[in-house]
Amino acid sequence: MKRFLPRVIGWCLLFLMCAALLSQLTLHPEEGNSPLREYYAVADKTDVVFLGASQVFCGVSPTELYEEYGISSFDMANGNQYMSMDYFLIREILRVSSPSLIVLDVSTVNRAPESSDWSHRQYLATMKFSPLWWEAYQATRVEGETALSYLFPVLRYHDRWNEMSWHSTPSWQGSRPAGQMLYGRIVPQAETTEYPFVDDGQTTTVEESHLKWLKKIIELCQAEEQPLLLVKVPGKAEGWSAQVANTVLQVCESYGEPLLDLDRRLEEVGVDMQLHTLDGSAHLNMYGAQALSRWLGGYLRQNYEIPDRRGQQEYEQLWQPILKSYHALWDQQEAQPQGM
Amino acid sequence: MLFTSFRFAAFFALVLTVYYLLPGRRQWQWLLAANFAFYFIGSLRLAGWLFMSILTVWAGGLALAALDKKAAEQTKGLDRQAKKAMRAGFTRRKKGVLALVLLINFGALAVMKYAGWVFSLLQKLGAGVGIWSLAMPLGVSFYTFQAAGYLIDVYRGKYPAQNNPARFALFASFFPQMIQGPISRYDQLANQLFATHRPDPQQLLFGFQRILWGVFKKLVVADRLAPLVQNLLASPTIDQAGSVYLAGLVLYAFQLYADFSGGIDVTIGCAQMLGIRVTENFHRPFFSKSVDEYWRRWHITLGSWFRDYLFYPLALSAPMARLGRLCKGVFGPAYGKKIPIYAATMGVWAVTGLWHGSSARYLLWGLCNGGVIVLSMLLEPWYQKARQRLGIRSESTVWRLFQVVRTFGLLCLLRVFDNAYTTGNAFAILGRIFTRFEPAALLDGTLLQLGVTAQGFFTAGLGVCVMLCVSLAQRHGSVRGQIARRGPALQGAVCLLLALASLLFGAYGVGYNAAQFIYFSF
Q: Which of A178, A213, A302, B451 could pair with A62 in a Cys bridge, judged by C-beta atoms 3.0 to 4.6 Å apart?
């Protein structure tokens, strides 16, 4: 037994080393590319955080907000980022920073609360390990996933050999200024598309398991005295309708929170779905994002106490490279428009 | 709790560590606690069935022992005739106890297993009944058979009854073999369970190697092929060429073997790490030269259970004796002896079929297997004559290879009843194989549309080759023993390779259904 145990320990260590090596070899290049990783670096210089799914990273431009109003903001948004993950992200944001305002897009409220595997995977892979991490993992884990796979990603990506493509994809750093994704493509809304929604004053049933996370977010922000703005970013989001909007409005009102439903204020915002959408009204393109952000900046300045950071050295140091990258991407998209 | 899950690994690591830290007299109690924990985690709501089985069989054993004791006391001093009469009375009472306990246990098993099927049959026949079925408790077929085997042995006086209910519960619910066997015998397992065990590096290493080998077979071969088997053979629609179905049946044979024997490897490995030897359940079945031999080498413990507790009592029963006498008069003395054996064989195979599942196709599967075995017994003299005429030596390699391939092919075809969506589909698949074979379909990419990629086929194929090579190496004794003789470095390297191969090439995690062992559902 005296010789056996050290041998066992030795082989176990060798196995762990091999598993770590295989983890590096099979690691998906996008694994760590979540907005959260970027946010950790700018958390103390961010006054407004926007949360939501693709409607947010397409439709809200932190760069325009900074250029026009000096608002230092960040898009914490990923494709299929559902409200369960939004809740944990807000807790993490409040753990590491104290933003003046959190803006939450409620477009995803009527989708199944189970997060998409990929979106939550990226966030959990970049979230710092803490009891909150464990809670977020438990709430959002998908079938077949193990917590150990975050330590040894080979458990999650072991079958990447099956794809036979080992090329790495570049990090989104630099390609998403402050979390925004710029798309220059214009695909006008078709005549047959029913948008904006016709409000018949009716509500609909949204499953409590779906609404739960919205309620938890409101309760959390109220308990923490964290200013929260609930917004519906323009766009024909999946699972959204005028009836859902009315239902969500009722929930918000029951908590004394307003809902800024921008689907109903398209003209005022200046969004035109013949020019400002990249896919026929589901998502705004960069022109739409510019229009929306310029209007939103004015709204935030009027209604919230958000400082103008322009001219402050540390903010300029942060924002100048972002502005540069934003304008370069803008020019690139204008020359060669692309969509999602 | 899946054997291939981290949850089970953590559970077993805890059980093993505490087991060897405890003093010997406490080890069996810890194992019993582990059994119940394992069962409660997996099937808490249905744990009552396990306790019912344990209590009734244990009480039945005590009642049989009490009757034996009473018979011994009351026959003391009696003359031979009186003794015989007294004993006959006690035997009747013992039979009553045995029948009652077996009826309770097998009755409960039958209700759980077949109620849904019977009700759906009645509904199909137009009876105005609703569908009603019970959830199956974890491992119910296995622990019922194991406990029933104990009771019959006690009845036969093979060993004394266990007085301690906790000790009996440990035997009846030993957690590594709870999910899919093997079905152990009390006299082989019980004493080992109650004995003191100290950690033995060799046994620990051998057990761990066996576990890794089982995990490799399950994850790399069985679970990788599972989507194809499911999408092709268990599909409600029959729309592929016969050659594709035949390929599917061949792959199903490997999947089933890797799945079942992989699970048994984990069971035996876990037991070995605890210092307990569990009966082997497989003996290189794919190298069998006849269907009969195959079934003596596949799921050995179930086969021997049926042989000892069903076949012999059935073959030696009074109705069979009457049948023998009847046949002797009609077909002559040779068939007078053989026909009861054939009838008992068919009876056992019908039960074996129904043990595997509650559906007509399982019954058909059992009867077909029994039929092939009986037919081969009947035709054996003609085979011998034909071989002699053709000048084929029965010990020649080519002939043996032919027998192995023939047996494998035959069993692949029979397995269609075990996996097809319905009995009708099973016949339709066989029809396609014999009437629309279309070999070109094997190469036109159809197989790649059934849930397994080309890389998946390659990996599973490599896994199958490794399995077959290991089976061949087993002809020269234990493979782990052969590796151990070459030194600890190779032993460690083999463990490392198996673990890494399972880690990298196994079908598990997100995007794969965590597949329960196939025999779990039996």
A: A178
